[in-house]
Amino acid sequence: MNHINVVIAGAAGQGVQSAGDILGKTLLRLGYQVFIAQDYQSRVRGGHNFISVRFSDEPLAAPVRRADYLLALNEESVGLRLGELAPEGLAFCLEAAKGSRTDQRLRALPDSVGPEAARGEKFAAVKLLSMLFAGLGFKPEVLAGSVKKIFEGRLKPELLRANLDAVAAVAAFIEAKDVRAPAFQPKAAARGGPSAGRLLVSGNDAVSLGMAAAGAGVYAGYPMTPSTSILNTLGTAGPRLGIAVEQAEDEIAALNIAIGGSYAGVRSACGSSGAGLSLMAESIGLAGITETPVVIYDGQRAGPAIGMATRTEQSDLLPLVHSSHGEFPRAVISPADHYDSFYLAAEAFNIADAWQVPVFFVNDLGQAGSERSVEEYDLSRVRVDRGLFAPEPAGTAMLARYAVTESGVSPRAVPALSNWLVSCDSHEHDENGRLTDDKDNRVRQQAKRMRKLAGMAASFPGPEILNPGKPDCLLAWGSTVGPLLEAVNMRGAAFSVAVFRYLFPLDPEKVRRALAGFSRLITVEQNYTGQLGKLLAMDCGLRMHSHLGKYDGRNLTVEDALELLGSLEGGKP
Question: In the prediction, which pLDDT does 195 show?
């Protein structure tokens, strides 16, 4: 695949994220496909952060490690990242950051270049971007237009003018030998100009949009990486969209708010990471026994406890399948890319409403924070299924809210908004919702609830098999899918890939039928134990032949996936 990867590196507070934002949005406007991945430490200032901005004329779904260009905002970043620069690549830095290095790929910009008002580190990001754009053969006016569009109104007029003057001055500094136009050109978008109908969204942006498209009415959360951006996005847009958004005092309160909103008749969700979901355990059980539909977003990160707060992992699958004490039905689904992040987020509410269960929508920090260009989402694909509601009675009547049914789903009603009297209790209850510990009733109610698992599993699709017919099948979910697929294609498509989006409950027959005929089943996950493989063994009786795990907290890159696949050569695990 033709692509260029630009790495922007520096300390927190130096404008790494702003530079990535400018570059990504400018490339999108030029018509390129873009994928942006972040790597940052858990600190407000200092440390070493970097953003990888990859662009191509073809859709991108994964980050890469090797850089074609490096924009180093400080000397530390030159030393840390120069080793990952391609032999024919270029690195740009300010003269003060070059130190004594003599690498022929390094281009240092004297601080004197540009207006006197644009001196110092705070202008480094825009200056190095200007060097990059000139090196790519782009006109400085393109970058200047993006800087103005993004910062007008956010910067004082004199600061904005200094940035714009710096863009023009630095572009003239680049020598002709360093101008290398991309070997590929952007393909025209479907409608209008080069970027018409195309969005640049993070995984969490897509989830937020999917929740809004599904008609969510309540979202609650407590700030915790990486779910915080959903709280911020919906908090900003909520009033216009009719969504009540609450920053709760803790994660327990957030889920209780969502349960209350659902009980009151609106589609409700909450979000956190694995550490927050651990706190929610008792309230998850409350949603289970009251059969209250609710969507719970889990942005996975490295654990246990606080673990690595800004690092990614896929280690929450089995904990969510068994979360909270006792036995009750729930669903666990996970997006494989930024399209799934939208459409599956919307579908999560349908599953919750149709089966009256908590639904865990499981992402991970790598995918939640990465940005990708996508074609504009198709709202006509979003359906709304509010599930089974009891027909309205002529007068006031007691609802058998937990009536025993063959499917396990009982008719519900919204308290105070109908003639039904609705009773709800966190204890075991009879059909009318009244507390009881009668043993026969317990058997009826528990069997009723658990019957939902078979119904849900039957309604869910099995794994999607890509590149079928190969002897070895790689099993993946979440953010591992994109890098893995690209790596497989680079190796001549020697493997089949099974993509799991509906992780629990599983239909054993569907799964076994989809995976029949493969010589080896190999899980590829960002965890140590191979949790998907363990779940398949437990629920489907399937034995994995190997597990390829990555658990250093960093994003899985295409190169990482290639190295994992290389370990399979010669039958080695």
Answer: 65
For residue 371, what are its two tokens?
Answer: 């940005």
Q: Report the C-alpha gap between 38 and 17 in whole angstroms.
A: 8
pLDDT confidence tier of residue 189, bands split at 50, 70 and 90: low
Residue 438 has pLDDT above 90, yes or no: yes
What domains, with CATH codes, occur in the chain? Answer: 4-178 (3.40.920.10), 201-381 (3.40.50.970), 397-459 (no CATH), 464-569 (3.40.50.920)
Give the chain's largest Cα–Cα span: 87
Give tens-digit pLDDT for 426-436: 999 999 999 99
Sign of CA dihedral 98, 103, 107, 112: positive
35 and 62 Cβ atoms separated by less than 8 Å: yes
Residue 543, classed as helix, strand or coil, is: coil
pLDDT at 285: 98
The dihedral built from the CA positions of residue 284, 288, 293 and 295, taken in this order, carries a sign that is positive
Scan for tokens 């009723």, then name that residue. Answer: 448
Element housing 333 (H / E) = strand 331-333
Look at residue 67 in the predicted model and tell me its pLDDT: 97
Q: Work out the mean pLDDT of the chain and round it to a whole number.
A: 94
Q: Residue 198: its pLDDT value, please?
A: 92
For residue 354 the two structure tokens come to 């149709």
Burial (CB count within 10 angstroms: exposed 0-12, middle 13-18, buried 19+), residue 177? exposed
SS3 of residue 217 by DSSP: coil
Number of H helices, E strands in the chain: 19, 22
